[in-house]
Amino acid sequence: MPVELEVNQVTWIQPTQLFINNEFKDAVKKNTLETIDPSTGKVIANVQLATAEDVDIAVCCSRKAFNKVWKNTCGSDRGKLLIKLSELTEKYGELLATIEAMDSGKPMYTNALGDIEECASIYRYYGGIADKIEGKVSMDDPLALSYTRREPFGVVGAIIPWNYPLATASWKIAPALAAGNCIVLKVAENTPLSMLYFANLVVEAGFPPGVINIITGTGQEVGAKLSSHMDVDKLTFTGSTAVGQKILQAAAGSNLKDCTLELGGKSPLIVFEDCDLDQAAKWAYEGIMYNMGQICCGTSRLLVHESVHDKFVEFLLDVIARKSVAGDVFDKNTTHGPQISSAHLQKIKGYVECAKNEGAIVACGGAQWGENGYYFLPTILLNVKPGDTVDQEEIFGPVASVTKFKTYEEAISIANNTKYGLGGAVFTNDIAKGHKAANDIVTGYVWINSSNDQDYHLPFTGHKMSGIGSELGTTGIEGYLKLKSVQVNLGKRI
Ligand code: NAP
Ligand code: MG
Fold this sequence. Notes:
By secondary structure, the chain is an alpha/beta fold. The chain folds into 2 domains: about 5-265 and about 465-485, Aldehyde Dehydrogenase, Chain A, domain 1 (3-Layer(aba) Sandwich); about 270-455, Aldehyde Dehydrogenase, Chain A, domain 2, CATH 3.40.309.10. This is Aldehyde dehydrogenase (NAD(+)).
């Protein structure tokens, strides 16, 4: 049943059940799952824990909605509903951000509210694209009308992680629905609350029942069931590379469903000797410390030309000292909240210890902060060598390593020496060198003279083991459409 919650002088009725067919329902087995406030370690609420049977029910409702209503709803009407969802996201933005801050540990005023803006923009953007889906006509044969249709898959399964719950859901729901699909979305165990509240907005916007379904449950059971479901036509996943591989295997072993995978990263940020060092230091801070380093494309590997290394490090430590304010996530000045969980905090600590054992020097941070919750201080590791554990493995925390280089070729070689290929940043005042580096870095996104200020008008793609397919931008809708060719005989006789 829903519960009344209160934080930061805001009170609301929090849904805790599965959202299927526009109704909140208990899971078949009625088991529950605790969700924790990572800034205190205390339980916020218990939500229903779906199992495979609930996935079957949600997929079945979604299929019916697709066949009976959604596939006959024209793009402009789908677009209107998405634009309404965008408006409601803005209307309830403060409350959604409050829930997100409490459940995920994002600082409310310097982080969670920014996510709301992004969500509203993405629903509006794809609302505008919904009526612009077109096919092509081949003019080759005068005796044939040969054309293509771009059709929705039908039922999309979506699985998201905990670092940007509302935002990642918008990356999937908006293009999937704009393309004409229905969706069953599984939220992460650690952060179920914001999307369960968002379900209210789905009803208020007027979406037909079954078009958007939101379920809570473990990855091992609910995520695995969605990936292997015979009646899910497309799976879109954001999360770790290891789980992405399992999803692809499950898809291959079931109905060969199409998959879009947005996976892990270990992104480089190259500081060339001719750049504006003050800017490089500020962006390097934003690029890895924002969201407590829990960013897939966080630029965690700082590769710095040896001639500017000491000055850059001095600037970076100064930025951290001035900008990073750990504290209550509802304090207006707080920029640094807790990590998502105790287990994740321990993992980050383990990486810092490992780096020290491999010869790194801790220039700042390296320790937990405060008495309560799962806070870890922004940490800069110096003297990290290419191939060291922290140079290769995704930490997903507020930890950046600094590695020196001598030449352009060496910088690019270190940058590309990773199994991942998600993001990359380059700092230089030489425009040709910047573009050349953007060509030479093997990642799906490159920033020149910034980091992580991602633009949703551009596609977001993982190269190498960072993913398959792309999201966002006008091409983001392609992942939710399949092609059909139709040939009409205009008079050929045999
Ligand atoms: P994760 O462990 O891969 O979990 C992501 C989601 O997958 C969760 O909902 C999880 O469920 C579910 N899951 C777990 N095992 C599953 C299985 N066997 N089958 C199907 N689903 C399963 O990742 P995370 O630790 O939550 O998130 C951090 C990772 O996500 C990092 O690697 C990060 O780089 C990546 N990420 C990538 C992007 C991108 O756009 N490329 C964006 C954000 C994050 P439960 O946790 O609820 O059990
Ligand atoms: Mg939580």
